[in-house]
Design a protein that fits this description.
homodimer, mainly alpha, 152 residues, 3-stranded antiparallel sheet, Arc Repressor Mutant, subunit A, DNA-binding, 70% helix, globular
Chain lengths: 152, 152
DNA sequence: CGTCAATATCTGTATATGCAGATAAAATGA
DNA sequence: TCATTTTATCTGCATATACAGATATTGACG
């Protein structure tokens, strides 16, 4: 009895805060991936950026911002680190407002070097999760993003 | 055909990185909660801390660290902000190594003030998600945490 | 009691993150 | 062409996060 109302009560307890739960799981997952990537000198966040650049080629900050759903100011700082390490370089652009970046040769090599380490981490997490749960996860996360976007 | 192997191939594409997906969803969710909490001057992360302290009463850094699955050094810095604002205070402890903190009166008031705003945000996200998906989310996140923990 | 190991927290350092507001350049329109 | 608006990015500021290593205390053992 009171199935729904007790669920609601539970869901409105801050312990079950969706933001907190996601943040917490993300932190723990990040730790696993960081550990796997350790020898490459990359953090999981940096790997994500390299991967995006590897796929996109030359791309503007704005486009990256849309693609990764990351604030542009965050990208500026995160790219700064990779540029300093010589993994990412600026490229020319016709519109002087637009900054376009791409992987350097060193960056492409680093990405190739890191890929198997990332795959190992991903494989481990997927194994611990199962294909079914993985599908569920992707679906639910997409819905959360939609729900949050629609509130703006 | 090739249902599983194509899934695997897809899952091992960095675009589907579990860490990235979680981080991204967490960022977007945080934005919604932060917007809802704006008038209170709290961020969702700070609300989480206040909520934990409201439930736990006087608690050590180590216990909080276990409870919230957050690094102790992170808690030190995050609590610093709340102490500075007078929302959290230190309390006496027999073991001089152990630092124990609790909500101040002002902190309890702030928590009570913020609670309905948090609930509104949580309610909105849950509505956009549905009860079924919410249950799935909690289950999957728990599994991810288990999977990541077991890798240590 | 004194030494050493174990425990709990803090500091230094570095990255991640995003809001507000600044800056610069392109597009628009009179 | 000049003034205004729009667009794209950057800077200043503040918080979140955690690894390594420093510090301080307690506990255990001879």
């Amino acid at each position: 009895m009171t199935g729904d109302s007790s669920n609601l009560r539970e869901a409105l307890d801050p312990t079950h805060c969706v933001s907190y739960r996601l943040r917490r799981a993300a932190r723990l997952a990040a730790k696993s991936y960081d550990a796997a990537l350790k020898t490459t000198g990359l953090k999981n966040t940096q790997f994500t950026l390299l991967a995006a650049l590897a796929t996109e080629g030359a791309v503007s900050i704005g486009a990256l911002s849309d693609l990764l759903a990351t604030d542009g100011t965050t990208l500026t700082r995160n790219l700064e680190v990779l540029v300093r390490r010589g993994l990412v370089k600026d490229c020319a652009s016709d519109d002087a407002r637009v900054r376009t970046v791409q992987l350097s040769k060193k960056g492409r090599n680093k990405y190739q070097e890191a890929l198997p380490f990332w795959q190992a981490a991903q494989q481990q997490v997927l194994t611990g999760l199962g294909a079914e749960q993985w599908r569920e996860l992707e679906g639910v996360l997409r819905q959360i993003e939609d729900a949050c976007h629609s509130l703006e």
